[in-house]
Amino acid sequence: MLSSTEENYLKSIYKSIETTQKAVNTNTIAAEMGTTAASVTDMIKRLAEKEYVLHQKYYGVLLTEKGNEAAKTLIRKQRLWKVFLVEWLHFSWDEVNELAEQLEHIRSEELTNRLDVFLNHPKFDPLGEAIPDIEGIFTERKQLLISDLAIDSGGMIVAVKNDTSIFLQELAALDLSIGTRIDVLEISPTDGSIKVILDNEKEILLSKKMGENVFVKPFHSRNRHIVY
Amino acid sequence: MLSSTEENYLKSIYKSIETTQKAVNTNTIAAEMGTTAASVTDMIKRLAEKEYVLHQKYYGVLLTEKGNEAAKTLIRKQRLWKVFLVEWLHFSWDEVNELAEQLEHIRSEELTNRLDVFLNHPKFDPLGEAIPDIEGIFTERKQLLISDLAIDSGGMIVAVKNDTSIFLQELAALDLSIGTRIDVLEISPTDGSIKVILDNEKEILLSKKMGENVFVKPFHSRNRHIVY
DNA sequence: AAAAATTTTTAGGCTCGTCTAAAAAATATA
DNA sequence: TATATTTTTTAGACGAGCCTAAAAATTTTT
Using an 8 Å Cβ cutoff, are B203 and B196 in contact? Predict the structure, then answer.
């Protein structure tokens, strides 16, 4: 049985390995966890003892199969809760991280699976991250970004790529949220900024960067034209 | 900020005071919490330090106003989660206690209140316990028990009085659950046992004791008669 | 390759929540 | 009222998870 703290370390290690595809070093984990290298060494020893990680002194940490499974289960739980918080309790994107962080530690496989059923087996969370299914399989995202849309085409916002609190608040300030209809009017040839119309109502200008961080589900061509 | 453990002690103290209307002694808490009197003394000191309880050596423990509020918030959270688990995730009565015990420690007022809204401000949990509202006010239950029903009258099961795991499992085995329609056919003059028909389908015999532990919402007279 | 800088580990200590054993206080019994 | 019993508290210890400071190992620089 893992403590919440142990679970958080595991998640952090998983994420780091996922991005770098290499053994994680102590300082990286310490930075991610907001703690010291010494504490990390302590914890790594505990997790190695319990066979969740492989540890070589002065080299780094890798996950065992058991550790990998555990990390994926946590990610599954966290992302399912995010779906619940956004879709059913109407939390905004920038509010769910902290809550899901707590909820993911609730210990009950049954609860996770029933939540999954209740939410209708979602494949992605509201922040655009894939949700592993009960077998631990991730669905590959093939969704488009706003920046992938052509002029005169449109879609519905389904997720975000960047989940920093600041970015999510920026989006909220621009009235961009899940379900917002977005149609591209112009794309600047100089800086790539995108003039869009939201829900057929409000025109705004998005920076290129902004457009590259929001996923949309494109409308079929027959729905594509804007109704004024 | 209280730890989960501190919160559990507070809840235990609250419950004890609620039933006895007297200061709680160390051993009672120890028994309730499954720990030792010495540990309780330690914890009481911490809670007194933080001004959640009043403690007089060798006398007992009472809650401060602050402690009372905190305990009621926990109870509110726990019971709202139970409603969610039963009504939306279709857990049975006997499965929710352990889960709600974990969920009640999630720290977020906003979450509690949104859950309350989502669930449509329920006044009672599925086990029949009143849910304090955001102000901490409990609704008085005025619901009937199966044993209060007259012959030829009926109602719908809405809650249970006794929430021990064994009892809840017994109910499940008898096919008694929330929403089950129950109509009284006979009441034994000797032992008070009650012959009922469930959902107009299945006749069973309930002991008097059983009938005294299940709440029903009575049907109005026009609906009362059984349709065969 | 030696010195310098960085990274990682060890050593020792702290708090929280727990324990057992013993002391102190309160209550019950003779 | 003196003694016995029960209850409560104190004292001391332990593991988990964290810290800082210092030592050890590794990597980088010269």
Answer: yes
**What pLDDT does B225 receive?**
35
Pairing of β A202-206 and β A214-218: unpaired
Evaluated on CA atoms A113, A114, A115, A117, the torsion sign reads positive
From chain A, the residues in CB contact with B102 under 8 A are 106-108
Can you tell me which residue has the tokens 């504490």? A39
Return the SS3 of A135. Answer: coil
For residues A208 and A194, give the distance between their C-alpha atoms in angstroms, rounded to a whole number.
Answer: 7
Taking the C1' atom of every nucleotide in all shown strands and the CA of B37, the nearest one is: D8
B120-B126-B128 Cα angle (round to 5): 105
Q: What does the radius of gyration of chain A's CA atoms come to, in whole angstroms?
A: 20
* A36-83: pLDDT as tens digits: 999 999 999 999 999 999 988 778 899 999 999 999 999 999 999 999
The Cα angle at residue B41 between residues B40 and B43, in degrees rounded to 5:
65
Q: Do A118 and B91 touch (CB under 8 A)?
A: no
Searching chain B, which residue's CA lies closest to the CA of residue A114? Answer: B89
Beta bridge partners of A156: A181, A217
Distance from CA(B42) to C1'(D13), angstroms, rounded: 15
Question: What does the pLDDT average to over A146-170?
Answer: 86
Q: Round to a whole number and report the distance in Å from the CA of A35 to the C1' of C5.
A: 22
Global pTM value: 0.76
What's the rounded Cα separation, in Å, for the pair B200 and B180? 10
Side-chain half-sphere exposure of A186, counting CA atoms within 13 A: 9
Q: Would you call B67 exposed, middle or buried from its count of C-beta atoms within 10 A (0-12, 13-18, 19+)?
A: buried
